[in-house]
Amino acid sequence: MASHSPLLLTLALASFISLISPTISLTCSTQNVLFSDKTPFQTCLDLPELESYLHYTYNATNSSLTVAFVATPSRSDGWISWAINPTATTMSGSQAFLAYGSGPGKPPVVKTYNISGTNLTEGRLAFDFWNLRAEALNGGRIVIFTTVKVPAGAGSVNQVWQIGGNVTNGRVGVHPFSPPNLNSRAVLNLTGTASGADGGGSKAPGNAGWMTTNVKLGVNLGVLVLLGAIFIF
Ligand SMILES: *[C@@H]1O[C@H](CO)[C@@H](O)[C@H](O)[C@H]1NC(C)=O
Ligand SMILES: *[C@@H]1O[C@H](CO)[C@@H](O)[C@H](O)[C@H]1NC(C)=O
Ligand SMILES: *[C@@H]1O[C@H](CO)[C@@H](O)[C@H](O)[C@H]1NC(C)=O
Ligand SMILES: *[C@@H]1O[C@H](CO)[C@@H](O)[C@H](O)[C@H]1NC(C)=O
Ligand SMILES: *[C@@H]1O[C@H](CO)[C@@H](O)[C@H](O)[C@H]1NC(C)=O
Ligand SMILES: *[C@@H]1O[C@H](CO)[C@@H](O)[C@H](O)[C@H]1NC(C)=O
Domain named DOMON: which ranges (predicted)? Predict the structure, then answer.
């Protein structure tokens, strides 16, 4: 009887570790994406859809948000995009930075889009931004860098990101309509790690809240399994 317990305890520990580790070992923290002055960003997030990543630093002094958005186009002539929607959590109304490859050895093209409905036409954005550029990374990935002005005192912004269809003669094709492409939006909390509750009054899930929830679930399950093992012992 007692000889079963070490096995159970090992299983309990293994499941405990496997449950919490995916949320702790963020892929983005291994990407070595740096500021223009070669320092790391304050925070990075593995976004919950489309294998996309956001590195960001918020400067509350002048309410500027510097980001590096990393994603991989689904095809060599495809596009990636990261946007803020100042007025809603939807794609429509998004103020988007969009990049696509421009051939081997050349930096990707990056442009701004003021999206209304499903109309993907280049346009001016509703807020100021600086230092917009894109770089090709290995593995076909593209990174978009920019600094945007956020309304003073805003605790969060609605972010929307996307991996699109093809680009033909500079015309950007529609993105797929699969669930990940439709769910790729979230509240980005600028003031710290969110609790599970969404303080922004928006319907989209907060990134930090999503991660916290996963850690809590992992810990709770791990504790339950440990308790079970102790009872059997
Ligand atoms: C934040 O912005 C202010 C005003 O531009 C600047 O003085 C300060 O150095 C910035 N802080 C960081 C960490 O970049
Ligand atoms: C805010 O600070 C950033 C980083 O220091 C700087 O690049 C930007 O120009 C500043 N923006 C304003 C509106 O002062
Ligand atoms: C898309 O938006 C642009 C700029 O606002 C406009 O000129 C164009 O007519 C729109 N296209 C469609 C199909 O609505
Ligand atoms: C963005 O597009 C909307 C709808 O076409 C328009 O009302 C708005 O003025 C545009 N924003 C800018 C900054 O041009
Ligand atoms: C690009 O995508 C559009 C819309 O999905 C499609 O109609 C067109 O055939 C595609 N072009 C190429 C060259 O694949
Ligand atoms: C952001 O995180 C802070 C610190 O946990 C929290 O107090 C605040 O309510 C959050 N805001 C939003 C909009 O989620």
Answer: 50-164
State pLDDT tens for residues 74-120.
988 899 999 999 999 988 899 999 999 988 888 999 999 999 877 77
Gap between the Cα atoms of 52 and 84, Å rounded: 15
**Which residue has the least CA distance to atom 1 on ligand 2?**
62
Closest CA to ligand 3's atom 7: 121
CATH topology of domain 33-208: Immunoglobulin-like (2.60.40)
Residue 64 Cα: closest atom of ligand 2:
1
Element (H, E) at 163: strand 156-168
User: Residue 232 contacts by C-beta under 8 Å, 6 or more apart in sequence?
Assistant: 4, 5, 8
The domain locations on the chain are 1-27+210-233, 33-208
